[in-house]
Amino acid sequence: MLATDYVSRAARLWPQKTAFEDERRGICYADFQKETLHIAAAIHERGFRRAPVAVFLDKSVECIVSFLGAACSGNFYSPLDTQMPVQRIQKIMDTLCPKVVVTDRAHREQAAEFAGSAELVVYEDAQECEVDTTSLQRTLEGLVIDTDILYVLFTSGSTGRPKGVMISHRALVDFIEWCTECYGIDDSIIVGNQAPLYFSVSVFDVYQTLRSGGTMYIIPHTAFSFPVLLMQYMYDHHINTVNWVPSALSMVSTLGALDSPHLPDLKRVQFGGEVMPMKQLNRWRAAYPEVLFVNMYGPTEVTDTCTYYMVDRPFDNAEPLPIGRACKNMDVFLLDEKDRLIPEGEADRIGEICVRGTGLAYGYYNDPERTRETFVQNPLQNTYAETIYRTGDLARYNERGELVYVSRKDFQIKHMGHRIELGEIEAAAAAVDGVENAACIYDERRFQILLFYIGAAKETAVLRELKVSLPSYMLPGKVLRLEAMPTNPNGKVDRPKLCELYVK
């Protein structure tokens, strides 16, 4: 099965139902398929196959249409957000070397400046062309197999050069079919999209909508700055499913907007991409006791999710939330520093999260060197070729056999002779009364742990509480209160920005 099969199936079963809606327009499944095929025709007639197609459009209905149009044409897509800095776009273009850039009339001149030798497909022009969709579908049939690349999403690289993660049709379908089965999703799903379309969290929103015949609303970005407006939007559109980064959920609960208004349609709250502060999750659970809350863990390299935990019991504010167990058809395990397996029964031993399964990416596009660093031969067996992905994340098992995220390997510091997980300090700080969110960085020049937080608590009070819960060597050298926690375009805490704030 192919990801593009979802489009034709949905158009057949729910032709007049709204598929996607942004601030300007909504589109039904029949029209979605029609516009998708027009984009596919415009790309296909240029003679490219299994080639990269960059999509340079605002976050919109047209952007999603273009993704599927590129895929239907026998090629694969890579999003270029119009709000991205020019330098980042150029770095992506240098790696991707797309054959085609899909844009619209409003962004044509901007796209032409960086397109280079890539051909431009203008959305409006493609839609105005005459296309025999029946004949085109027959022509395109068989051009793609499920091991072909569906998309390349670029993530931040430690060297400053973005990494293009390659995901196949097979990996995407495997993930979405598991979600459908695991959560019992049907055509009643109404998704409220928060994540940018170049961020892997959005993959669930787009493809689960198509798979289930549901409706996805692209929530206006401005609504996330005004939680009352955000909740009103969700109420007005009867949104029952959200898959947001924890920072977005925490913003609502921190500012006391959970019942502004109350959301009677809400059924499912999924979150991932960073650690969910337990205090904020408890506020959400208290306000919506009947809602299913799911912690979904996984980097872009595993098609977004490889473990999940359906929150099924109460947690104290200071307790860590499990990331749970492996999704169906995924094997997730911990390796110690000598690549030895850490058994499930050995709680308190920390190891790197490693993953194997259908959902693994092929690696990083046009970047074999960095691919070899993390997509490696399974060290637990040497009898045949088997790739695993080393996530760079550290975790341990709890007494229930559930995985518990600890921190990034690069968040593990050596301070005063001790190995310290900055995530443990953050969790302890987030549990303090009057602290709404917290983040740590390490100043290697001054050998100092820095804790940033938002909330009403005073710095001295936070430090006093941390002295009760943390050993002396883990105490931050500086505690700094912020009016707002800086976030990057994905909605995660922007740690480089924290470094800049400290330097200033």
Structure characteristics:
504 residues, 25% strand, alpha/beta, five-stranded antiparallel β-sheet, 25 strands
Shape: globular
Strand segment count = 25
Alpha-beta content class:
alpha/beta
Beta-strand content: 25-35%
How would you sum up the major sheet?
A: 9 strands, mixed
Distance between the termini: 53 Å
Helix proportion: 25-40%
Mean pLDDT across residues = 93
Query: Helical element count?
Result: 16
The parts where pLDDT drops under 50 for at least 5 residues are none
Gyration radius (Cα, Å) is 23 Å
Q: Give, in spatial order, the strands making up the sheet with the most strands.
A: 2-1-10-9-11-12-13-14-15
Question: Can you characterise this structure?
Answer:
It is a single chain. The mean pLDDT is 93. A 9-stranded mixed beta sheet has the order 2-1-10-9-11-12-13-14-15. The protein is α/β, with parallel strands linked by helices and 504 residues long. It has 16 helices and 25 strands. Helix 1 crosses helix 9, helix 2 packs across helix 3 and helix 8 crosses helix 9. The N and C termini lie far apart (53 Å).
